[in-house]
Amino acid sequence: SSILNHPPEERREFSNGDFYSGEVKGLLPHGKGMYSWSDGTIYEGDWDQGKISGKGKLIWSSGAKYEGDFSGGYLHGIGTMTSPDQSVYSGAWRMNVRHGLGRKEYCNSDLYDGSWREGSQEGRGSYSWTNGNRYIGSWKKGGMCGRGVMRWGNGDLFDGFWLNGCRHGSGVYKFADGSLYFGTWSRGVKDGKGIFYPAGSKHPSLKKWCRSLEYDDTGKFVLSRSSSIDVDELRSLSLSAVNRSLSMRTSTSGMSDHPRELTSKSARSLGSGQSEGHDKKNRVAYEREYMQGVLIRESVVTSSVDRSLKIRPPSTLSKQVSARTFLTFLTGEHNYHLMLNLQLGIRYTVGKITPVPRRDVRASDFGKKARTVMFFPKDGSNFTPPHKSIDFSWKDYCPMVFRNLREMFKLDAAEYMMSICGDDGLTEICSPGKSGSIFYLSHDDRFVIKTLKKSELKVLLRMLPRYYKHVGDHENTLITKFFGVHRITLKWGKKVRFVVMGNMFCTELKIHRRYDLKGSSHGRFTEKIKIQEKTTLKDLDLAYEFHMDKLLREALFKQIYLDCAFLESLQIIDYSLLLGLHFRAPGQLNDILEPPNAMSDQESVSSVDVGVTQELSIPPKGLLLVTHEPNSVSTVPGPHIRGSTLRAFSVGEQEVDLILPGTARLRVQLGVNMPAQAHHKLDEDKEESATIELFEVYDVVVYMGIIDILQEYNTKKKVEHKCKSLQYDPMTISVTEPTIYSKRFVNFLHKVFPEEM
Hints:
Elements: H1 2-5, E1 9-13, E2 19-25, E3 28-36, E4 42-48, E5 51-59, E6 65-71, E7 74-82, E8 88-94, E9 97-105, E10 111-117, E11 120-128, E12 134-140, E13 143-151, E14 157-163, E15 166-174, E16 180-186, E17 189-190, E18 192-197, H2 206-212, H3 231-238, H4 259-270, E19 285-291, E20 294-301, H5 314-324, H6 333-353, E21 371-376, E22 392-397, H7 399-408, H8 413-421, E23 426-429, E24 439-442, E25 447-452, H9 454-473, E26 482-490, E27 495-502, E28 513-517, E29 536-537, E30 544-547, H10 550-569, E31 576-584, H11 587-593, H12 610-613, E32 624-627, E33 647-648, E34 654-660, E35 664-667, E36 674-680, E37 691-693, E38 697-707, H13 716-725, H14 740-752
Parallel strand pairs: 28-29
Antiparallel strand pairs: 1-2, 2-3, 3-4, 4-5, 5-6, 6-7, 7-8, 8-9, 9-10, 10-11, 11-12, 12-13, 13-14, 14-15, 15-16, 16-17, 16-18, 18-19, 19-20, 20-37, 21-22, 22-26, 23-24, 24-25, 25-27, 26-27, 28-31, 30-36, 31-38, 32-34, 33-34, 34-35, 36-38
Helix pairs in contact: 6-8
Domain PIPK: 332-753
EC number: 2.7.1.68
Organism: Brassica campestris
């Protein structure tokens, strides 16, 4: 019976020169058969209703051949492809492209074994080079991206984060001689703070530290390329490894006070092998700070700083946090449910209001009845989907107002929803202030979600009509941009209020310093033992003044005056300027010390010619302003920007773009991508330090915005209390004319951004 059911065989030659020999069903190839195309391509294997399906072998005229599974005429399933250059891939296929687990041996004998997606390496995989290098870790779109380990043929090893084939984020570099560098990288070069342990010195456990790469300084799981190094912890651990009998320290004593001579001597000393700790007799650790591969600051971790660098015990720290956090119950599983509830509520809000035709807001849109309330049971309802969280109630405040604000800020509703409510979820970040608020960051860093106190919510809703008008009249406003206000009521009655804001530091550039500036000196400093790479510093910590183009500065202060006048009218006096700085490496050393595309670090700083070091005090020219070209830069508005392109005096009062050589071309807007020169302020009264500061002038890219505008002081008692804490005279401030704060605030900023003489 099997013989009777077997399809008949045919030999058929077509007019175009193609030839088929095999089983058919009707007029179509079906079963086993061979097809030869006129160009020399040959297939032999299974057919199904005229399509190549099943097992088979395909040989192209170019010499390439594939043997394995087919489906519907596509390479689909498991198979082996040998290319004309003799590279061989064996593994999974989907619709003619490599997709799934597979192994590829290249013509030069390089080997990749791991996951593929749409034809490129993506997921977990291992790549071995013929020169002995090997990488094991995460891939994305054909490049090393995410967590991974690279071992070089010379014995060096890097374990940390990667982006587009370059080291990017936290990591540890272990040299063949046993020395280690714990730090951060940006686009393949060291960028930020870290600690170097010379060969022979004791260092923190590599296993323990590498596990900590997946957690931030709050202990939360983040697994992000932007993870920062905990220098304080490394510094503390390194103290036990320091030789207690060490008598020689690195300090600035004995050096000339002249900046140029100081820089020359520092550069020469750091260029020696001894400064790198290769002398086994000097078993010390070096705390360093790099800027795009250039070493700008170094201090020696010795027993002499043991007392000043001690970290508080964890029990003490946890008591402080619990005392100031008003949402102490939001830990562990509760916090997880809260994030899920927030995502469900925002998805519901945006999905409901977006289809409503746009109209101008009315007075009723700001009123107490302008609320949307919905109950989200775990099993779902006629209006809500089932979910994996706990039952909760959702309240959305002034939905039409915030819908219009989002459109005014040129945010796409779908992108807004996917950014916050996508599968990647939210990341909890530690609070930089004393409010005790909890902050969440969207997976793409575009939005910050902050918990609010009831009093802050009242202030926001009361100011909302005037806020709406102000941001509508002034597209360049520096005031925080709000995109939505919501409240979640959990099943046991606890109410949590949120506001969604734009992240001012959402940029492709690394933010090296963050400052919260109020124009006050009372308590406005950060204890040294608390400073980490992403710590938000205060007024007295700012050691720079910034010089910028005449027209850029004029535009900045024009808007600051307008925004301060608006806040004065609302009786708000406790706002801050949030300042972010991206430092550019001094151009004279950038190429000498560490090439941007170097795959292997050389921890020893190259010797620098005396003629070069003598010019280090000359202001660097690492930034370039050019005439704005819309087609050359991204004009898509970010979550924190909306305004026009700024004009620069130095470019003939034309709208300008900022070029960062080898990095990017950026559109210059108010508070975003603003170029300046940072001049280091030397404090002659300051005690000598073990830290060597190599440069006095840097090119910087400035980001800024006005924050903390939800503290209202509308009674005499509140004003007097706040003025006392800020060292102002409360007798000079009336409840109806709170101008002293804004004047002091603006005067302070004039010192920070001085006018050129």
